[in-house]
Amino acid sequence: MQVPFLDLQAAYQEQKSEIDTAVARVLSSGWYILGQEVRSFEEEFADYCHSPHAIGVASGTDALLLALKAFDIGPGDEVITVAHTAVATAAAIELCGAKPVFVDVDPLTYTLDPTQIEAAITPRTKAVIPVHIYGHPARMDPILQVTRSHGLVVIEDNAQAHGARHKGQMAGSLADAGAFSFYPTKNLGAIGDGGVIICRSRDVANRLQALRQYGWQQRYVSEEVGFNSRLDELQAAILRVKLRALDEGNELRRHAAAQYAQLLEGCPLILPQERPGSKHVYHLYVVQCQERDDLQTYLAQQDIGTAVHYPVPVHLQPAYLHYHVTPGSLPVTESLANTVLSLPMFPHISEAQVTAVAKTIHTFYGSN
Questions:
Q1: Cα separation of 102 and 96, whole Å?
Q2: pTM for the whole thing?
Q3: How far apart are CA 74 and CA 90, in angstroms?
Q4: How far, in Å, CA of 205 to CA of 203, rounded?
């Protein structure tokens, strides 16, 4: 059976009528940037996240960048984060002029290891960005304990964990700000780029609203140097439709993950784990295997799509070698780069498709 890595077309078809109506509504309105659709989505998303404020921006990378700028983080400052992440996390830190300082990850959930923070703090450290990777929240209690004791800003990178929870609270709402991406592959994905920042402080929200549009407090008057980073009306309208189905889609992902866990029992794989008190939303279903490349090739030969998130840790990528992070200094991160494999995962994956993937993996191991 052919099994795609993900199926965005199926997601569109599921909500086609509502999405088409929303798009037509925007097109006929004559208002395409920062209008009522964006305002309504911001209100609805803030309410969903149990956060006072949400500010729509052009991408998830911009969400991180503007959040950093809103807390006056810039040249000369250091921001602690992980190298086991999409490069956008580090890119946003660089774009604001600060320096990313990489620490290792928890081997159970692949999120920032709180025990690594203290040793990485210097007089220049201003913030920490934990990444809720693959849909599982980072261990926010110990992270907040150490960061609060040092007066550091905490910005959650929630690009992969829309709807995930930590002790009943929404991931992204646990710290000073949360940055979300709406790249089409996300659990809440636009049909194009988009992002949002949620925060508690009205002052921070006001500054973010200015920063996303040239530093304007009033039109055409820049109080500070800002950006052109606006969530457009079309994407906001589509996201309003998709937001209503987010929890249902996450539950479908969790059902598929449970099926994988049952069917892959006995295979020499390390399967995803869910910490007590956390709710994993399985943006990706990531296994570890020593024969990763051979298994990926075999699955491709059987028309089963997979991916690797991520094959090169950020600290070992060419653009970041100038930080001179010694290879081997982040052992868990570097091991994951050689062993992780993302299996097909999307809300509408069928039980038959999950079964086909699992059977093919069993066949691979049975013949090797």
A1: 17
A2: 0.97
A3: 13
A4: 5
Look over the chain and give the mean of its residue pLDDT values, rounded to a whole number: 97
For residues 264 and 287, the answer to whether their CB atoms sit within 8 Å is: yes
What is the greatest pairwise CA distance in the chain?
A: 68
- What is the rounded radius of gyration, in angstroms, for the C-alpha atoms of the chain? 21
Point out which residues pair with 82 in neighbouring strands: 103
Task: Say which residue the tokens 């503007």 belong to.
Answer: 66
**Could you give the CA distance from residue 197 to residue 55 in angstroms, rounded to a whole number?**
5
pLDDT digits (tens, 9 = 90+) for 165-190: 999 999 999 999 999 999 999 999 99
Q: Which helix (H) or strand (E) holds 54?
A: strand 53-57
CA angle 111, 117, 120 (to 5 degrees): 125
Taking the C-alpha atoms of residue 147 and residue 23, their distance in angstroms, rounded to an integer, is 43
Q: List, for residues 71-88, the tens digit of each pLDDT value.
A: 999 999 999 999 999 999
Determine the length of the chain.
368
Asked if pLDDT for residue 367 goes beyond 80, the answer is no
Q: Is the pLDDT of residue 324 over 90?
A: no
What b-and-e string marks burial along 9-27, b requiring 16 or more CB atoms within 10 Å of the CB? eebeebbeebbeebbeebe
The tokens describing 160, both together, are 């992969």
The secondary structure of 122-164 as a DSSP string is -TTEEEE--B-GGG----HHHHHHHHHHTT-EEEEE-TT-TT-
Identify residue 36 by its one-letter amino acid code: Q
pLDDT tens-place string over residues 252-282: 999 999 999 999 999 999 999 999 999 999 9
The partner residues of 247 in beta bridges, in order of sequence, read none
Helix 233-243 with 16-29: angle, nearest 10 deg:
150
Q: 124-165 pLDDT, tens per residue?
A: 999 999 999 999 999 999 999 999 999 999 999 999 999 999
> What span, in angstroms and rounded, lies between the C-alpha atoms of 127 and 130?
10
Whether 368 shows a pLDDT value over 80: the answer reads no
Distance, CA of 91 to CA of 100 (rounded, Å): 9
Q: Which of 12, 25, 9, 38 is nearest to 235 (CA)?
A: 38
Q: How far is residue 338's CA from residue 365's CA, in Å, rounded to a whole number?
A: 18
Q: How far is CA 214 from the centre of its chain?
A: 26
Mean local confidence (pLDDT), 39-60: 98
